[in-house]
Amino acid sequence: MSNVINVKVLGLSESIRKAENFAKFGKPIEKSDLTFLAGNGLQDAAHRASSCMGWVWRQWLNGASKDMLAGRVEAFVDRGLELRKQSTSYDFLALHDLYLLHCAIFASGESQLGTVAEQIGDASGDKGQKPGDNGELYAAAWCGMMKYGILGDSKKAVEQSDIIWSAFREPGVFAAAKSLVVPWLKKDWKAFVKAQEKDFEKLWSRARKDGWTFKADSPNECVVTTERYQIGHQWCWAHCGLAILARREGVDVVTDPFWFPKNAMDRKPEKKPLADDRGPDQLNMF
Fold first, then answer.
1. CA-based, 20 to 30 A from 227: which of 42, 52, 163, 213?
2. In a domain, 216, yes or no
3. Beta pairing class for 213-215 and 6-10
4. In-domain check, residue 218
5. HSE, side-chain direction, 13 A CA sphere, residue 92
């Protein structure tokens, strides 16, 4: 799809509205929310966080900048952290952590992102419980890898990543492939960019087969819709998260007009490129 210049998204306004309704931005924590927490853990909060991710993607496609989205998303993340604090159950906690962290990666400032990374759990568990290998461990290990990657503990990040690949993954939850994660952890940015390109090609190929992508008359235009996408496993949210974090270190990552629009990264990188910032331990960790 590198030759596609224009992507037209059908029904985008309606998709944005639906995602906004499901995310329930601005809704205060009420007694009913606490009652739901007691019986169902963070199930509803995880669903809302997934909807928030989908809302951000569609806003990117609508041309919104990260700064335009920050106010709503940061308030949403604060609410998610408070619900997490008040929940005594481990149910859906790891999945909620993973989605909430990506909401923060997409639109929060550095301070809030650091706070989220510090407060979320990892594969060792939380709330006095350990994740079961029923999908919880997969989500918890992903949280741990991202948590320690953001906090700068590369050793722990690698240890958490090792758990991911042997853990059971629920069909409705897919983060990113090992081919993307390994170079990201190693800070091998040349390999990471190549993996990005391959991943986008796979996504376009799958979309064509599933009938979600429709070519227009022009060879340089593609007509698509986001309406049928289940965010948890059909959009590349974790790929985008890894790329945004790499970009924040100055890496010239690959974007895509549909899956990962350029305006997702309109903030100025904070560091110079780290293409050669790999010590012997990092190069040999896999």
1. 42
2. yes
3. unpaired
4. yes
5. 22
* Residue 258, both tokens: 């549909």
What confidence category does residue 211 fall into, taking pLDDT thresholds of 50, 70 and 90?
Answer: confident
Q: Give me 277's structure tokens.
A: 């910032």
Residue 129, sorted as left (phi over 0), alpha (psi -120 to 50) or beta, turns out to be beta
CB 58 within 8 Å of CB 19? yes
Residue closest to 52 by CA, chosen among 33, 31, 28, 70:
70
Q: Is residue 1 part of a domain?
A: no
- Identify which of 236, 248, 239, 245 has the alpha carbon closest to the alpha carbon of residue 180: 239
Q: What is the distance between the alpha carbons of residues 252 and 72, in angstroms, rounded to a whole number?
A: 28
pTM for the model:
0.90
The torsion defined by the Cα of 139, 140, 141 and 143, in degrees rounded to 10, comes to 90
Give the domain extent around 66: 6-283
